[in-house]
């Protein structure tokens, strides 16, 4: 698959093929060496669930799970991730069943405008997998890379606290499957 | 058959929640279009002068670059002021992007580079060389006070004789506060995606708080009446930044018209600092009271910055003449024009800074008179708005003080500063009153039954995160008597029924009233239609005697007498009603407002000066609350904004360059998760049948007003230091 734009001139700049699994689906993509993982998702393959808030790693709206670890997708170049497995907000739910974290965000009204939400969700799932934050204050600290300008922080915290046990179970199950 | 309960007043989940948590909600810069081009804006690097020459050749030579637009080659645009005057325009001559060679402020858009990809356009933009003729600029409010003149605001005239009363007052406070420039910085940067249709008309996905405002603006500026449609299904926050069309919109349209292609222009985060903002201000207050704390006189003067081309005004000082009972009041509001962009309404515009000053001054007065801050406010309570000479339609502020103080534990507070230390931490408890207007604007809504029997209601409003989709669905469901899942509310399309800008906390009161009326009328129309049938069992029945369930219309007392809604629709064509609601005449005799009492605990580290807001109680009187879940989220967000105003936010300018320095989310500080403690929201019961048919006053702004004062007052209580310059950063406490 060559998804690079084929207009005159630009084709003279080499693109590089990468194999990357996105939300469980293996993909072969040709990417420019300067394209960030975020722009690859949003502009090249139309996965606009991952948001661009600053493009400088300062807001966390672009957080995705790269090989299970949370990362600011605006700060990493797509071509570096040949062979990687990526989960975006579009890949959290299983079919019609929301991920426990997603369901808790709806229940606790853990957002208003929704623009930081995909990053908050991926970050919360990534944080759960890290297993380092337990108390409310620790959760607050470990979620402080994701800005929410609407100020829904208290509801975000409540949602995460409720969804962490189920998220942990799901992560364990997924680990079992991949073994 | 189950007994129906109204969904209004229930803490229901957002109807658009599942879309938002799955990344399915699409924002302005996310609509894919065939052959889409990307524009990148070039900004000026001087604050005042002229462009002598723009060399765009190197940029144009980049393969994949389709055009570089400047004032020299843009498509024709209107030359008079009028077409640029949108629904939220300030007095004056609105900024016209790429109009001519004049530079009016630093970072003004001066060119748009359009190319096949985002990166290409951005790269090519870096190759543009601009030669300027620079003129001397002035951007510092504090050093240009000699330029001030009276703001074109409709202030109430002096009441009584404040000067005389101040001379005679037993207790007096004379203080000055300063507040900085702040930028809205919604998480979603502004963006416009222009779809160039084969017939030359445009469909524009835009980030805005007013789809019809943007439609009219483009129609007028580009002389394209009837050829523009604006679509805004989701907005990634705005807080006022979308009240006026921002310049990415006309720039994207220019490129689309020039190239006859679809074009998207998005702001980079840095460019979110190149248009409106909350103005820097000086607030001067002199207050006098009797020895028992009865207010005798208030003098409140505000001095704020504006641009040289528009006189931006907001309600900064009026609050001091209406919140408390005070016989002698003089209000004054001055503007200083500078070589900057025009300020723009930002969450609770004017109230956020004016009430901050008033409520800090009240705290200072409480200490001067040695009266508990809550008691001082209770003493000076009034249910009469003396600015307008009218009673309030409702004002449950005393209940806010009482319930808020009770929840917070205020009675355990000791009055003396530094009296509540906890080991190394200084503890401070502070409070303030908050207030906002309860406005209503003319609005319309359309209601119809679709082919499946579902109720579809629409209005050209937006949902900037406030919960409009959800609360309108609730209001429609109640008015029609439908279950929630049989109702769909649509918004964000300029072709829909007329709606005002989404701002000022008046969407529920305005659009909600129209939604309610449209549904009530549709209910009547349905009944009317079935009564036309010969020997109809419905004849003689009133709207109260009928009900709906599972797509059927039936008689309550005889549910077997029923008609399928889709059959009615099929026989008579689409059943559709459009209703408009104007603010009721009954309002004319009253003043209307929302009120709050905010209680704050801070912990201050004596050595580092670090302040942590550990808990906040906000007790709010806002009439009937349509959805306590989304409404309390609004209040919490407002509180977070207030904490931010008190401790974090400030856009700093390098006055040598006349340019903002900290134009990024790393250096423009807003609270993160770890900065926010517990926030407890109380909605005090308040019945109001005057304010509008719903009895609901709106909650978008009231949450922020008063919070910065309560935090500042808590910091004084903790440390004994009055910091009268926002934000209260640690250097000011050391």
From TrEMBL, chain A:
UniProt keyword annotation of Metal-binding present: yes
Gene3D superfamilies membership: 3.10.20.30, [2Fe-2S]-binding domain (1.10.150.120)
Swiss-Prot/TrEMBL keywords: 2Fe-2S, Iron, Iron-sulfur, Metal-binding, Oxidoreductase
PANTHER family in alphabetical order: OXIDOREDUCTASE WITH IRON-SULFUR SUBUNIT (PTHR45331:SF2), OXIDOREDUCTASE, IRON-SULPHUR BINDING SUBUNIT-RELATED-RELATED (PTHR45331)
Protein name, entry field: 2Fe-2S ferredoxin-type domain-containing protein
A molecular function GO annotation: 2 iron, 2 sulfur cluster binding
Keyword Iron attributed: yes
InterPro entries for the chain: 2Fe-2S-bd (IPR002888), 2Fe-2S-bd_dom_sf (IPR036884), 2Fe-2S_ferredoxin-like_sf (IPR036010), 2Fe-2S_ferredoxin-type (IPR001041), 2Fe2S_fd_BS (IPR006058), Aldehyde_Oxdr_Iron-Sulfur (IPR052914), Beta-grasp_dom_sf (IPR012675)
Domain 2Fe-2S ferredoxin-type: 16-92
Taxonomic lineage of the native organism: unclassified sequences, metagenomes, ecological metagenomes
Automatic annotation (TrEMBL), chain B:
PANTHER family (UniProt xref): DEHYDROGENASE, XANTHINE DEHYDROGENASE
Signal peptide annotation: none
Gene Ontology terms for molecular function: iron ion binding; oxidoreductase activity
Organism of provenance: marine sediment metagenome
Protein name, as recorded: Aldehyde oxidase/xanthine dehydrogenase a/b hammerhead domain-containing protein
Location of the Aldehyde oxidase/xanthine dehydrogenase a/b hammerhead domain: 22-136
Classification via Pfam families: Ald_Xan_dh_C, MoCoBD_1, MoCoBD_2
């Amino acid at each position: 698959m060559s998804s690079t734009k084929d207009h005159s001139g630009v084709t003279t700049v080499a693109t590089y093929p990468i194999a990357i699994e996105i939300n469980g689906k293996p993909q072969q993509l040709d990417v420019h060496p300067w394209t960030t993982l975020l722009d690859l998702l949003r502009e090249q393959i139309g996965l606009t669930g991952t948001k661009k808030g600053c493009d400088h790693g300062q807001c966390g709206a672009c957080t995705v799970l790269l090989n299970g670890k949370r990362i600011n997708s605006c700060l990493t170049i797509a071509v570096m991730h040949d062979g990687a497995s990526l989960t975006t907000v579009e890949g959290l739910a299983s079919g019609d069943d929301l991920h426990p974290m997603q369901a808790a965000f709806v229940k606790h009204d853990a957002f208003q405008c929704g623009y930081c939400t995909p990053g908050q969700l991926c970050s919360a799932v990534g944080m759960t997998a890290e297993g380092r934050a337990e108390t409310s204050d620790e959760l607050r600290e470990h979620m402080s890379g994701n800005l929410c300008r609407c100020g829904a922080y208290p509801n975000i915290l409540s949602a995460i606290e409720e969804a962490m046990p189920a998220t942990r179970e799901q992560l364990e199950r997924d680990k079992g499957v991949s073994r | 058959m189950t007994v129906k309960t109204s969904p209004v007043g229930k803490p229901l989940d957002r109807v658009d929640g599942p879309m938002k948590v799955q990344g399915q909600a699409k924002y302005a810069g996310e609509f894919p279009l065939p052959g889409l081009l990307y524009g990148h804006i070039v900004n000026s690097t001087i604050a005042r002068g002229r462009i002598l020459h723009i060399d765009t050749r190197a940029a144009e030579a980049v393969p994949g670059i389709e055009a570089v637009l400047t004032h020299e080659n843009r498509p024709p645009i209107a030359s008079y002021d009028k077409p640029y005057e949108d629904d939220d325009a300030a007095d004056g001559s609105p900024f016209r992007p790429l109009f001519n060679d004049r530079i009016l402020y630093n970072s003004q858009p001066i060119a748009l580079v359009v190319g096949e990809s985002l990166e290409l356009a951005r790269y090519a933009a870096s190759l543009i060389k601009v030669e300027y003729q620079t003129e001397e600029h002035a951007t510092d409010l504090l050093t240009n006070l000699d330029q001030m003149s009276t703001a074109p605001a409709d202030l109430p005239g002096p009441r009584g004789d404040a000067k005389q009363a101040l001379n005679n007052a037993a207790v007096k406070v004379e203080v000055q506060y300063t507040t900085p420039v702040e930028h809205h910085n919604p998480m979603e940067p502004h963006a416009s995606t222009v779809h160039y249709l084969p017939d030359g008309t445009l469909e524009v996905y835009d980030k805005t708080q007013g789809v019809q405002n943007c439609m009219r603006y483009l129609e007028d500026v580009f002389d394209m009446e009837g050829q523009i449609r604006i679509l805004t299904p989701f907005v990634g926050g705005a807080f006022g930044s979308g009240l006026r069309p921002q310049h990415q919109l006309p720039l994207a349209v220019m490129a689309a018209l020039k190239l006859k292609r679809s074009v998207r222009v998005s702001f980079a985060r840095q460019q979110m600092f190149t248009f409106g903002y909350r103005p820097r201000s000086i607030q001067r207050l002199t207050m006098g009271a009797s020895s028992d704390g009865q207010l005798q006189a208030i003098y409140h003067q505000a001095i704020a910055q504006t641009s040289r081309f528009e006189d931006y005004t907001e309600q900064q000082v009026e609050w001091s003449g209406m919140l408390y009972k005070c016989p002698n009041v003089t209000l004054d509001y001055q503007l200083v024009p500078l070589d900057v962009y025009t300020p723009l309404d930002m969450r609770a515009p004017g109230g956020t800074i004016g009430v901050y000053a008033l409520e800090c001054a009240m705290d200072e007065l409480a200490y001067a008179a040695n009266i508990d801050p809550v008691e001082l406010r209770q003493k000076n309570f009034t249910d009469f708005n003396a600015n307008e000479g009218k009673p309030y339609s409702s004002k449950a502020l005393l209940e806010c003080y009482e319930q808020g103080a009770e929840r917070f534990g205020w009675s355990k507070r000791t009055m003396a500063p530094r009296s509540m230390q906890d080991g190394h931490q200084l503890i401070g408890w502070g409070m303030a009153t908050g207030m906002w207007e309860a406005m209503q604007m003319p609005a319309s809504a359309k209601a119809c039954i679709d082919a499946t029997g579902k109720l579809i209601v629409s209005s050209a409003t937006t949902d900037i995160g406030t919960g409009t989709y959800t609360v309108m669905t609730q209001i429609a469901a109640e008015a029609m008597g439908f279950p929630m899942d049989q109702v769909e509310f649509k918004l964000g399309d300029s072709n829909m029924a007329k709606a005002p800008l989404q701002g000022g906390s008046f969407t529920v009161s305005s659009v909600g009233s129209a939604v309610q009326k449209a549904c009530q009328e549709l209910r009547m129309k349905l009944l009317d239609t079935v009564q036309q049938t010969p020997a109809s069992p419905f004849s003689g029945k009133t709207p109260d005697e009928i009900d709906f369930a599972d797509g059927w219309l039936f008689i309550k007392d005889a549910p077997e007498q029923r008609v399928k809604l889709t059959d009615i629709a099929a026989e008579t064509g689409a059943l559709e009603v459009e209703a408009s609601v104007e603010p009721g005449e009954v309002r004319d005799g009253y003043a209307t407002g929302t009120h709050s009492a905010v209680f704050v605990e801070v912990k201050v580290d004596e050595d580092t000066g670090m302040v942590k807001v550990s808990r906040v109680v906000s007790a709010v009187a806002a009439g009937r609350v349509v959805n306590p879940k989304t409404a309390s989220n609004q209040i919490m967000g407002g509180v977070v904004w207030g904490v931010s105003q008190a401790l974090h936010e400030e856009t700093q300018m390098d006055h040598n360059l006349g340019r903002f320095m900290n134009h990024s989310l790393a250096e423009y500080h807003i609270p993160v998760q770890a900065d926010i403690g517990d926030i407890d929201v109380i909605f005090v019961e308040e019945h109001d049948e005057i304010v509008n048919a719903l009895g609901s006053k709106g909650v978008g702004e009231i949450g922020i007003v008063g919070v910065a004062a309560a935090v500042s007052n808590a910091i004084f209580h903790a440390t004994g230091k009055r910091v009268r310059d926002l934000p209260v950063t640690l250097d000011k406490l050391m």
